């Protein structure tokens, strides 16, 4: 099972919501705040904000938390100062890792991430060291019980999708980021339920890990996910089947 499997990552995040609800909501609301602050606070005219709100709703983030984040962005409730930073590094076995971060203290965050990489047997790298191995794409998941594969394929290709394949009980649809909204609308128009839809980084190559390195990679992912400044983690690891139930 690939560590970058979008279906596996979504299932994992939903599985830890109860255990880490407060921290997850904080991350989701921080993304909403930055999207609203850097653009129109109206999600109808701010695509990034709309995606951030939809993602928060997927994880049952309270409506009042979402509204409070937008009000803070507009200055109604004070203001924060977050920077968007993409940290890059190498995990166990030379795995390429990208971390999307929203932080109010780059020095603190860099130190915490460097420690997490070091403990896992990797190292935090310089800008550009691994990002060239990833392409930013839109990814949509549809449950395989919702529609026949051939029918769904016809709909999404006509709407601008680049590819579609089954993955862990879902159909995973990939597209150019600019086509994400059109494909979502095509599915909504046909009353096809969407499990998740977001922008993500997809690796061009993968690194096969044995069980020992795979366990270290899982610990690195857990440490990065636990960091409140880290919004998303992307990697090109391919975990052995023995560890698939731990993703």
Automatic annotation (TrEMBL):
The keyword Transcription applies. SUPFAM superfamilies: YebC-like. GO terms for biological process: regulation of DNA-templated transcription. InterPro entries: Integrase-like_N (IPR017856), TACO1_YebC-like_2nd/3rd_dom (IPR048300), TACO1_YebC_N (IPR049083), Transcrip_reg_TACO1-like (IPR002876), Transcrip_reg_TACO1-like_dom3 (IPR026564), YebC-like (IPR029072). Coiled coil: none annotated. The keyword DNA-binding applies. Keywords: Cytoplasm, DNA-binding, Transcription, Transcription regulation. It holds the Pfam family Transcrip_reg. PANTHER family: TRANSCRIPTIONAL REGULATORY PROTEIN YEBC-RELATED, TRANSLATIONAL ACTIVATOR OF CYTOCHROME C OXIDASE 1. This is Probable transcriptional regulatory protein Isop_1532. It comes from Isosphaera pallida (strain ATCC 43644 / DSM 9630 / IS1B).
């Amino acid at each position: 099972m690939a560590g970058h499997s979008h279906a596996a990552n979504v299932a994992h995040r939903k599985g830890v919501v109860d255990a880490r609800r407060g921290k997850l909501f904080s991350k989701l609301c921080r993304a909403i705040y930055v999207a609203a602050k850097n653009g129109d606070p109206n999600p109808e005219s701010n695509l990034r904000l709309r995606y951030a709100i939809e993602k928060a709703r997927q994880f049952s983030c309270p409506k009042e938390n979402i509204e409070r984040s937008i009000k803070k962005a507009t200055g109604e409730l004070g203001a924060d100062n977050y920077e968007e930073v993409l940290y890059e590094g190498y995990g166990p076995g030379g795995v390429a890792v990208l971390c999307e971060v929203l932080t109010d203290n780059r020095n603190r965050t860099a130190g915490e991430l460097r420690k997490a990489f070091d403990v896992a047997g990797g190292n935090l790298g310089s800008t550009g060291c691994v990002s060239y191995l990833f392409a930013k794409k839109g990814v949509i998941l549809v449950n395989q019980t919702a529609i026949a594969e051939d029918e769904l394929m016809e709909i999404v290709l006509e709407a601008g999708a680049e590819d579609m394949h089954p993955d862990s009980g879902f159909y995973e649809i990939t597209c150019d980021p600019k086509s994400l909204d059109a494909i979502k609308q095509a599915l909504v128009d046909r009353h096809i339920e969407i499990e998740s839809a977001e922008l993500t980084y997809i690796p061009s190559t993968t690194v096969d890990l044995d069980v020992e390195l795979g366990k270290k990679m899982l610990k690195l992912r857990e440490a990065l996910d636990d960091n409140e400044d880290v919004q998303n983690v992307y990697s090109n690891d391919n975990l052995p089947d023995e560890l698939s139930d731990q993703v």
